[in-house]
Amino acid sequence: MSNPLDLDRIAIHDWGTHPCYPSDLRDRLAAADDDRAYVVRDAADLDDCDAVVTLYHHDAFPDAVEWVHCVRSGYDDFPLDAYEDAGVLVTNSTGVAGDLVGESAIALVLSLAKGLHLYRDQQAEREWSRLPVERPFELGRSSACVVGLGQLGGGVASRVNALGMSVTGVDVRPVSQLGLEAVHDVVQLERAVAESRFVVLTTPLTPDTRGLVDADVFAAMRDDAYLVNVSRGAVVDQDALLAALDAGEIAGAALDVFDEEPLPASSPLWDRDDVVVTPHAAAQSDNHGEKLARLVETNAARLTAGRDPWNRVV
C-alpha cells in the first residue's frame, strides 16, 4: 500500500454486546490513541467518519468509509466484491480469538469426557448420582482430529496435545504439523476422522466448507466419538447430525455455533443430554476488548503511515 489514509474519526458500530461492548472498545481506543477520535455510531450515521469497526456487514459501509474492520475472524457475510469495487479496505480479527476459542474448545472436550454437563443438569434437580463407571474416560488415552489448522485450529491442537491426546489435523493446504501425528487433506476427511474420539471443527465457512460434515462423515466416525464445533454452524449438516445421534453413530456433540442463531426454541438440540449447547460464546473473555483495541490501533497507525494493515482481506 502506498497512499496513506486520513483516519481522523473511526466509528465503532453499535452492534450490541457480543463479543465486547462497543463503548468499552471505544474507551480503550480513545485512551491509547491521541491521534484520532473514536465514536459509537449506527450504520446510517457515518457521514463524518473515515472508517468503521463492526461485527457484521451493512450495505451502507462500502459507500461511507475507506476502511472496514470486522471484529470476527470470519467474514463470510461480507460481499467482498462490493468493497473491492468501492475501493474500501477490509480487515478482520484473525489471531485475536485463537487463545480464547482454544480454551473454550478444551472446556467442551473436558466436559464431554468427564460428563460434567450431566452433573450440572443433576445439580438443578438436587440429584446425587454418579455416572456409570464406564462413562467417564481419560483424555490422555484419547485422540482428536482438528479440522482447520489456522489460528483457531492451531490453538486447539496445541492444547489438546498438552493434555496428552494423540492429535491429527485436516486442512486444505500444507501446514506445519504443530506437533500433530499427521495432517490430512480435506478430501481425506472421512479417513481422517475415523479413528478419533473427538472431531473438533475450527474451519472457516466458505462455499467449500458449507455442509462439509455430512452423513458420510458421521458414518465414518467412531460410535463413541464426539463432535465439537467452534467454527461456524453451517459447516455441519444439522439434519445429518441429528440422524447420527439418533442412530447412535456418534456419542454426542458440543456445539457453540449453529446454522440459525439464536438457536430456535423449537430445535431438538436443546432437549438432548448427549449435546452441549453454548450460545456462540467461545471467544468471549474479559480481555477480548483489549485484544481488539490493540489490533485496531495498530492498523489505524499502519494505514495512516501508508503501510499495509494486518489481516487484510481486500
From TrEMBL:
Pfam families: 2-Hacid_dh_C. Gene3D superfamilies: NAD(P)-binding Rossmann-like Domain. Keywords: NAD, Oxidoreductase. It comes from the Archaea. PROSITE patterns: D_2_HYDROXYACID_DH_3. One of its GO terms (molecular function) is oxidoreductase activity. Residues 106-282 form the D-isomer specific 2-hydroxyacid dehydrogenase NAD-binding domain. This is Phosphoglycerate dehydrogenase. The lineage of its organism: Archaea, Methanobacteriati, Methanobacteriota, Stenosarchaea group, Halobacteria.
